[in-house]
Here is the input.
Amino acid sequence: MTRARYSNIFYGYLFLLPYLVLFCAFILLPLIYGLGLSLFQWEVLSNAPPRFIGLGNYREALGETYFWMALGATLRFVAMIVPSVVCGALLIALALNALPEKSGGFFKAAIFAPTIISISVAGILWRWFFSAEFGLFNAWLAPLGVKVPWITENRWAMKSVVLMTVWWTLGGPMVVLLAGLKQIPEQYYEAASIDGAGAIRRFFHITLPLLKPVLLFVIVMNIIGSFQVFGQTFMITRGGPELSTRVLVQYIYETAFASYRLGYGSAMSWLLFIVIAVFSILQFRLVRERE
Amino acid sequence: MFCIRKLTTFISLILLILFISLLANCGKSTGIKPSRKVVIRFWNGFTGPDGRTILRLVKRFNRENPDVQVLMQRMDWGVYYNKLFVAGLGGRAPEVFIVHASSMERFIQAQVARPVDDLVRGANGIQESDFAENIWQAVEKDGRHYALPLDVHPIGMYYNKKLFREAGIVDEKGNPKPPTNREEFLDALTKITKDIDGDGKNDQWGYVFTWYRTNMYTFLLQWGGRIFTPDYQKCVLDSAENVEAVRFFTDLIHKKKVIPPPENFDSWIGFRQGKVGIAFEGIYMLEDLKRQKDLDYGAAPLPLLGKVPAAWADSHTICFKKDLSGEHLDAAWRFAKYLSDNSLDWADGGQIPARKSLMESERFKGMTAQWEFAKMIPYIRYIPRVPFALEFLGEFDTAAERGLRGNVSAETALSEAAANVNKIIKRQNEEQKRSKP
Amino acid sequence: MKKIRLRLIQFFLLAAAVVFLTPIALIFLTSLKPDSEIIHFSGIFPRQWTLDNFREIFDTPEEIPIFRWLLNSVFISSAVTFLILLVNSMAAYALARLELPGRRGLFVVIIATLMIPGQILMIPVYLIINKLGLLNTPWALIIPAGAGAFGVFLLHQFFLGIPRNLEDAAIVDGCSIFGVYRHIVLPLSKPALSTLGIFTFLGSWNDFLSPLIFLDSVDKFTLPVGVALFQTSYAAEYGLTLAACVVCTAPALLAFVFFQRHIIKGIALTGLKE
Here is the structure.
């Protein structure tokens, strides 16, 4: 290599350096540190020094009802939110795509608007909506004689959180799917209609297959994001009623920052990571097989 | 296409907001004034009306004591305790902070709070006999007292006078007669609970469950039960008396349907709206009630529903940072004593002062609701003071919720919680053994 | 037929738009109601319009240091945006254009971290920040944010699309790497940079978990955390709370109104460049 190239490489890495420092300090290092922490018993409340216990924390978590309840709550959330948001977003994207060029900007912005609201504001708002006694929804339903236990009944609570999350997060996937739809060339549709294909057949034989990469991306990102749910349940139900909506991240947060069990909390974080990774890999494999 | 003009407008707006907020901040004093004042940081969790009352007291103290500047900081109690504890562990505790008597243990054990005996018995002190015995004992450990009790706030009975009159539950003079025992309580329930709008469902209730924790704790104790064994080594939440207490209420809720399904705090709104005859809530809800101008409410001691007179209570206590000394210690104590001496002003906002001399004053007798609730002080009971208070309370709250809502039996809810708490105790003991070399 | 179908679709979208916008409108409208109207619900629009809630928020800075929170949010969000734009663009350029050995592997590693949920890092990052003595300072929120991989990813893809001949011409003219970066690449990337900037600003503005964990003192809070902890457990002062929500939301809404096209385009880009 020439001298110029060597110096180029040197300056190149220099360019990269600031980011690399931050990356190593705040992503790689915590990743490893967290893994290490999870192998120790460290209860700050007791003044005892951290003690190496190998997989002890993991065993405790896997044997503890509260962990499975929390994981269950998260899984229920994911199972409900991903289909709702993806289908809802797809529906609206299709509707927007059917509009003539350049129109629909208002609709797009309106439906996207909720995503720019902070989770704490959105949470406060919907908490008021869902309040059984003086909430907005029940006030609207009162003339019908209906009083829905939105967040006071186990059967309803998680569904209410999902409802709120659909409102809050539909915009993102909608926008991505719309962009994906717009990429599909008009000619395909024209050719298909000339061949006599109706709207439904066009959808299943042209739109879906060509949309697949974008759709897959949306689904996977949604799954990963949904597993991390915390703000909504923290603000709206605080994990109630009866801990039915206490998602795993909230449980980890409480373990680490209220009970000060840092080793145990780290182990649960890693268990969550493993669950997410498994799901993502499964998703990719499924698609690869189909192709 | 990208528009520079839009970006410039946006950035200018952001700068404008920044500028306005800077101006607004300079106008009001929230920062530390550079002067020779001794700065005392004062943290607490008083929000809402409580917060306004304490702020008034702080401002008055600052005015009357120009050489001290008390800076108050407050946030929601739940998060407050986490932040306070972490700050304490890191040596960054504020000079003065409020801790509930029931939550003191972890602060004492972590050596974050300074004993106050020398201050109380000192020159500018307070007569120990001026504190009711059970209140002064609530802050004591191993012979030393770790905080200055500011108040005591029990739950008591609020009742809707109008509903009582309508139901005919009155005395000879026609004044509403709140219940004093189980029979009268059940009588009131049956007479007041009714279906007003004829839709087949009750919408006016004799009694509603508000905060599970305080109500349930009171009832468990009234039925003669305990939470822990006296040495705090075992949780006996699932004892026979406790199960019986919970069953008494689940019967009323789910079988006899004279109490609505519990909704924790939200049920309180029903009382404010005038749809409920009786609610057992803390004296601290008084301010909230006063805002409801169209409600004719009364206050009275709790009825004896079980065998043993008991009422949940807690106290806000004033703690001092561990290594406080010199002029900071002096200023901090002066501030704490000021709050204590003026706790009638604090009581006005819906509290009961911890000092007997103030409780016997004419002014206090004029505070009807507080005066009524104060009658229960001889038999108030604090939640057991354990270092794992937060986790224990979490289990307790869950057990109360599950038991009352009836999805599982009372025994199941209580025994599962007891098992979990026993696990916590075991873990705590193991860790304690390790921390002593 | 086509006309009817179009009308139906437009009606459907209009209904959806109304459903999605109404809650936002309600934040504003309800904050202008007195508390008594909120407890006894009386309709979407206030019967009695009042600025009392706002007056109370702004008049009591010792209780509700809302301007302090606003200041903190503006400072932190601006600093995060600046940091990310600077550091991420440099890294993206280095990885996209400079032929550094190992750059492909490095890029893959960085992108892989996009899959890592932030929460599993929160405990270790907390301990690291504590060790650095940065707890309860705005820097706890600013510095770790610079490590985000999203910006690197977005800009990397964009830089790949810049015609090489422009850069080559500059190098021939004797420009250093930094010079090329500064005079050629950055100006050409204004759309991507501005999109990333707005994105980052909004994301930082609305962040809730990090300030909740890293900040202890009320006067250091950002708006979302200040507003969230506003919800008192004892009394429901919804008018006041919603007024605080308005203060928190208004700047974000403002940014949206100005830049919605770019924000939306930016999000769309993430899906397509995969």
